[in-house]
Amino acid sequence: MKMAVLGSGYLGTVYATVMASLGHQVVAIDVDEQKIDSLNAAEPAFHEPGLKPLLIQELASGRLRFTTDAATALKSVGIIFICVGTPQSIDGNSTDLKFLYESVDAITCFANAGALVVGKSTVPVGTAAQLAVRLSEYQLDLAWSPEFLREGEAIRNAMMPDRIIVGVNSSDVEMVLREVYKPFSNAGVKVIFTDFHTTELSKLAANAFLATKISFVNAMAEICDSAGGDVLVLAGAIGCDERIGQRFLQPGIGFGGGCLAKDLRSLISSASRYGVDNLAKFLEQVDEINLRQRHNAVQLVEEMCRGPLLGKKICILGIAFKPNTDDIRDSAAIGIALTLKELGATVRIYDPRAMKITKHHYPMFGFGSSVMDAAYGADIVLHLTDWPEFLEIEPSQLGTVVQHKRILDGRNALNSELWMNDGWSYRALGRRTALSRSGII
Ligand code: UGA
After folding, report:
1. 3: which strand partners?
2. Ligand 1, residues 322, 329, 387: which to mutate, most atoms within 8 A of Cβ?
3. Is 259 among the catalytic positions?
4. What integer pLDDT is reported at residue 14 of this predicted model?
């Protein structure tokens, strides 16, 4: 099929490339000329494992191209996917739909009557129904099918999603999309057709639920620290029940990134708007617990350094919001680094992928060229993103360059015994009494 993808950011680039790899003829559109030139040269603006080789392959096949010429591109296709960003508003919890409305304006100007528009962006409940009315005035159909990509594993997610959910308001549209999604349904992916509202809410609910799981375990980390207990053992124990499961129960400095908090707040905003105050209050707590973990981490650093942080040298290992990405949007590590800097500490960062972007946005931090370089002379080392390479660090080797052998494991991911056996003061959120019982604190 001939299709256009509007928006060549993270979602649009990945989606356009994957759709081309399924054999479709795809033109991806963006207003940013520099970005489009780079993409046509197979240079994405972000790090995503597996994307570049696929991009090279699909550009070479002739099935994929990137353009700023929306007019020509939109005229040439029968199906248009909207993949623009829907960020949080700067003045509250609601979602800023500016880019979405701009893309709909372009579609109404240039698309052929009879074309099908499919929204992939995450939007507040009610958005699709409202847009469908507007698009129908131009004889354009609308469906909504939000994407569930996870950064760092987006190619695999896009090719083999856990499910595809599609909001439609006509059986003709459903028939077309059943055909488009056939490669997925044939591969065993569940494709769920429903109404617009259920679709929009399902995407927000999925992210809010994941956020709730993480905040739940982090709230349990707090009570473990106060009452006594080891949150890691607790998480492992409750996760054995397959109704609960082990995933998304990793305690630590909490969730960040461009999606979980944004979608949680979008749902809070919708819940308040529709008068569902209990849901709004419940999700507000999830958000608060998450942000409190950043504060708790800073307090633990102060405790480990035995006093004010003025003049202390702090090494941060990992600044991306999670491993396998260079994305630092709403990264918990960034929040912590900024507070430490405000408290007068000297912060030196190392991250395998996110150095360039962090230097660009936060030039006030120091940067190391390697783990050892960032840790040189440090009073304390903070492990804030669980990159696999940090699990390979030899405590005895790192111990030769630091001033004090203190490590705060903000992701509860390192092998605590290994560090403690080498004489490091090892601490982690939710394990205060467990570690002290073992005589380490
Ligand atoms: C999230 C969802 O997981 C995707 O399903 C969804 O499609 C996507 O948002 C989206 O809306 O586009 P993503 O933001 O890439 O994906 O990141 P996650 O893997 O969900 O991780 C979010 C944060 O939670 C990270 O900071 C991670 O370190 C943290 N986390 C995750 C924990 O603190 N503990 C855990 O147990 C798991």
Report:
1. 26, 79
2. 322
3. yes
4. 97
* Pair 94, 269: CB distance under 8 Å: yes
Which residue ranges make up each domain of the chain? 2-194, 206-437
The ligand 1 atom at the shortest distance from the C-alpha of residue 332 is 26
Kindly report the backbone phi and psi dihedral angles of residue 193, in degrees, each rounded to the nearest multiple of 5, phi listed first: -100, 135
Active-site residue among 83, 224, 259, 315?
A: 259
Nearest atom within ligand 1 for CA of residue 11 = 12
Q: What spacing in Å lies between the alpha carbon of 327 and ligand 1's midpoint?
A: 12
Check if the beta carbon of residue 44 is closer than 8 Å to that of residue 38: yes
- pLDDT score, position 437: 62
Q: Is the pLDDT of residue 441 over 80?
A: no
Top-level CATH class of 2-194? Answer: alpha beta
Q: Which atom of ligand 1 is nearest to the CA of 122?
A: 11
**H or E segment and range at residue 243:** none
CATH class of the 206-437 domain in this structure: alpha beta
pLDDT in the model for residue 347: 98
- pTM here is 0.96
Instruction: State pLDDT tens for residues 118-169.
Output: 999 999 999 999 999 999 999 999 999 999 999 999 999 999 999 999 999 9
Residue 249 Cα, ligand 1 centroid: separation in angstroms? 12
Domains 2-194 and 206-437 share a fold: yes
CA 26 to ligand 1 centroid distance, Å:
28
Mean pLDDT of the chain: 96
Centroid of chain to Cα 311: 33
Mean pLDDT within 259-266: 97
- Residue 264: CB within 6 Å of ligand 1? no
pLDDT in tens, 268-287: 999 999 999 999 999 999 99
Radius of gyration over alpha carbons of the chain, in Å? 24
Averaged over 1-10, what is the pLDDT? 96
Q: How far is the CA of 251 from the centre of ligand 1 (A)?
A: 13
Q: Cβ(210) to ligand 1 under 6 A?
A: yes
- Picking from 213, 159, 206, the residue whose alpha carbon sits closest to that of residue 186 is 159
Mutate to test the pocket of ligand 1, among 13, 155, 210, 321 (most ligand atoms within 8 A of CB): 210
Which residues share a beta bridge with 426? 407
